[in-house]
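Narrative summary of target 7.
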Amino acid sequence: MTTACARPPILNRALLLRFVSVVASSVSFYLPLAVIPMYAGTSGTATAAGLANGVLLVATVLGELVTPRIVTLVGYRWALGAGLVLLGAPALALLGSMSVPMIFAVGVLRGIGFAITMVAGGALTAALIPDERRGEGLAIVGLVGGVPSLLALPLGVWMAGHWGYGIVFVLTAAFPIVAVVTVLGLPDREKADSEQHGVLGGLRNGALTRPALIFAAAAGAAGVVVTYLPLATQTWVAPIALFVQPAAATVGRWFAGKIGDRHGQVRMLVPSVGLAILGMVLMAATHEPAFVFAGAALFGIGFGVLQNASISLMYARVPAAGYSTVSAIWNAAYDLGMAAGSIGVGVIVTATSFPMAFVLTAAAMVPAAVMSWREGRLLPSPRP
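Modeled conformation, tokenized:
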């Protein structure tokens, strides 16, 4: 006998269809992520290789900020379809040209496509999940997209080395283009965000910017881990740690989804930032593999919990018409945070050492911990 308090199911036909484009965009983004810098290095300089993904990242952030306006004009479904095409199709141009300008141009187009896919697709996904189970639903979506990314990143490098760059670029294009077919079966949610829910309005809303800033601090630390841990540790340690960290983050997202829906997402903020800080401190012992692995696991769990809790909290604070704004602000915080961590710590490493840089990165997250405590004290998470 069904009770009045029975919880609605998370999975439905539309969400299962959406999973196809989630997997496709994840594979298309991560499969060539390490390959394109290698490709740029063969036809240019080391600087060109380093800038290849930098151009992609900048274009992604700019695209994230304008996507809510695109959604206003055409709706979620058309925006998602266009984003998938832009993410995939430009990669085919690399089959005919190895020039650095072409590589950068492809990076710009793919960055915009990825931004549209993440923002419009993320907002549509949130609308397909019952409000009272949004945290758990987003955790499942994170798992669906996270596992392919874990596999695609090293697989792309392996494929390029064994079969050549061409097959990587063809698959990069094929996955999202094929997935466009599934977009036709998705419901098209509200076309227009009102002006008050645009990105500029969202940035003036402290209830949205505070969780975004807290998450950006942890994203900055994640940028440090990805960029500098391979340089700071023994050769065999880094690959293991860089697998442990995102794997632990996936577990953290799942945990946050299960617990946060029941007890309030805002309560997850302080513990998650605390775990991230502790993990960075442990990873500062760069010559002790056991400490590095333990730190990567703790940081990963904290980062994953914060990923899920911050975006779930932000979605809960706006009406459905504001979902694309939330998605844009959160994704921009993610990308800008990672970029700031990667660039800023480069200066610190030059002046000090890798262990000190990791310790200072941990210290830089302390204000985020204080902000998290104040968030839980002053503005509790709304309950469905």
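The longest helix spans residues 46-88.
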